[in-house]
Amino acid sequence: MSLVSSSARDRLSSALFRVARWRRQQRLMAGDPLALEPYIEPHNPELGFVHLYVAGNTGETARWLGSPIYAGEAAKQDPIDLCHLAIDRFHAFLETGDAAARQEFLAMSRRLLKRGHMAELAGRRCFVVPQFSHIEGYAAHATPWLSASAQGWVGAVLVRAFQLTGESAFVEAARAAMQPFLIEVEHGGVRDRERDGRVFYEQFALPGQTRHVLSGFLSALLGIWDVVRATGDADARRAFEDGVAGLDDHVLASFDNGHVSLYAQGPNTRVTPSCVFYTWVHVRQLASLARITRQQRLFTWAERWRAYTQGAEHRALTAFECLSFRARSLPRYLGWTKDDELPRRTNALESASRPYAAS
To answer: Angle at the Cα of 115 (from 110 to 116), degrees rounded to 5?
Structure first.
């Protein structure tokens, strides 16, 4: 008979994972977030390294996602994890010409095709890769649901597979994966509006509960751009241009509290402080978009936020805010309270033409 309950073991495992994740983040932040590789050409129609590539880091993603400490997260089968693994193998192939890495990349790309399927949403034919997990901190919600970040990554992976193989299934799915960016969240897509009406692509596209996660929005834009330059698809280009237009100085300023960028915010208020690591991620993403769009203002924001990750005073204030936020969340983390319950409702994604089945 076990002396430790399964819930206690789960909480211990979760705590160990959070510590390991924090240590990994510290290692990644040792690099300058603006120091992108000079041979990455974000306008070349022949896709190469992904925008956030770090030279000499190939294999780190695979080791992290395959580590025992990540097993609990891996069980959630987040399609973004599969995309990250695929890109890791694609980078290995580019760097070394390793045929095995190329085959691993293509095998993972085909797994993505099987994980998703075509569905009609708001009159559009979409390739969707659904999520089935419940999001911590959100009220009970219907499944499946879509993630803008996942849809963007799926497009970026599949157009690379198309360029390697010429197989039409890859490019057709990649184009169709862009359609949810043109469909509002309440109709099953990932397109929403921030509080002043600007377009925002949602990391967690949950009707009635959208929180504007900045890193998810920026990640989605980078994936959309890869589909644009690989295919010239008009709908993908519209999605990219709408998203960049929504990412204006007013919106970026709303994510800036003077010493850190916010991770997310609700429809009416700022809600979630960002740890230093996510500000570091925001800097890399904005720097990549600045190269793509040739908009100096985006690079200016990246430089401003990089200073937040380096200044001792900024880091101290950020650490205090994050610890305070975690302290307020501790009762839920320990299982003393539960996420608010909402009446379960069928969402537009769930009632699409072809039922989902978790793989």
So the answer is: 100
